[in-house]
Design a protein that fits this description.
- Helix content is 42%, strand content 15%.
- The protein is α/β, with parallel strands linked by helices.
- It has a single domain, classed as TIM Barrel.
- The strands form two sheets. An eight-stranded parallel barrel has the order 1-2-3-6-7-8-9-10, surrounded by six helices. A two-stranded antiparallel sheet has the order 4-5.
- Helix 9 packs parallel to helix 11 and helix 11 packs antiparallel against helix 12.
- The radius of gyration is 17 Å and the shape is globular.
- The chain starts with a helix and ends in a 10-residue tail after the last helix.
- The structure holds ribose-5-phosphate.
């Protein structure tokens, strides 16, 4: 693999653990002002030191993130639809030259396997991979799941494997029963989305189960930034992903940081 590609991937998947805590704040690209992300700068700033990478759009990156940050950027480059339209009808919405200008560590695009736009989104993925290869930029494929689509290991496994076969370097998907099979049959690292907000304890359990099943980490959004204490929550998730913490240990850490008077300091890798 090309040096630039390897270098960028190692900025996302931490070499010490081989895992990653990605903070996803790209929801506005089709959802508009999502709860907890109404003013992106306010949400992102306190969480940034605890994220191994930040996944977002170029609009929010340029307007709402300090350019002196050392946190790697995973740029959402697919778009063109909204919650009011047909979500699967996305295309590539950013030129690769702009991703290079923004010094990103990776670009991300959603595929909609089983949707009316399956073919278009899969071919957008291959187009993006070809474009990104010219610059040594890895591609993260997001296996988006429509409201009416199943989230079982057969479907998730199918979507993840297709993304990897087409050349994605990392795949982001949803956790499901039998997730070990999904990871085993996907030849590139798999990270999980958090999905809709659940209790903090449930989100920690989800992270723990995914890591136990072989996931390479999380690309989590709402269960961090909609938490009653986002900074405490991201640290608890880090403990599971990087420090082999159990759910109870991570839960205790969440409680400790939630009650801390002084601002937290990043301690794990
Ligand atoms: C949705 O398509 C976006 O890519 C989000 O980044 C993704 O769903 C992860 O966020 P959450 O943990 O809130 O599901």
């Amino acid at each position: 693999m090309d040096w630039g590609l390897k270098n960028r991937i190692s900025r996302i998947l931490q070499p010490k653990t081989g895992k990653t805590v990605m903070l996803a704040v790209d929801h506005g690209y089709f959802l508009g002002p999502t709860t907890g992300l109404e003013v992106p700068r306010k949400t992102i700033a306190p969480l940034l030191p605890f994220a191994d990478s930040l996944m977002l759009t170029r609009g929010v990156l340029r307007t709402s993130v300090d350019p002196t940050t050392s946190t790697p950027i995973v740029l959402r480059v697919s778009g063109g639809t909204s919650i009011l339209g047909t979500l699967s009808n996305e295309g590539i919405a950013v030129a690769m030259e702009d991703a290079v200008r923004l010094n990103v560590a990776a670009v991300a695009l959603s595929i909609f396997v089983g949707s009316p736009h399956e073919k278009e989104t899969l071919l957008s993925l291959t187009t993006l991979i070809d474009q990104a290869y010219n610059y040594g930029i890895p591609v993260l494929a997001v296996t988006a799941v429509g409201k009416d689509m199943k989230r079982d290991s057969q479907y998730i496994g199918l979507a993840c494997r297709i993304a990897a076969e087409l050349g994605a370097h990392i795949v982001k998907t949803y956790y499901c029963e039998g997730f070990e099979k999904v990871v085993e049959s996907c030849p590139v690292p798999v990270v999980i989305a958090g999905g809709k907000k659940v209790t903090e304890r449930e989100a920690l359990e989800l992270s723990y189960n995914a890591i136990q099943a072989g996931a390479s980490g999380v690309d989590m959004g709402r269960n961090i930034f909609q938490s009653e204490n986002p900074v405490a929550m991201i640290q608890a998730v880090r403990a599971i992903v990087h420090d082999k913490a159990s759910v109870s240990e991570a839960w205790e850490l969440f409680a400790k940081h939630k009650n801390a008077k002084r601002p937290a300091v990043k301690q794990t890798v």
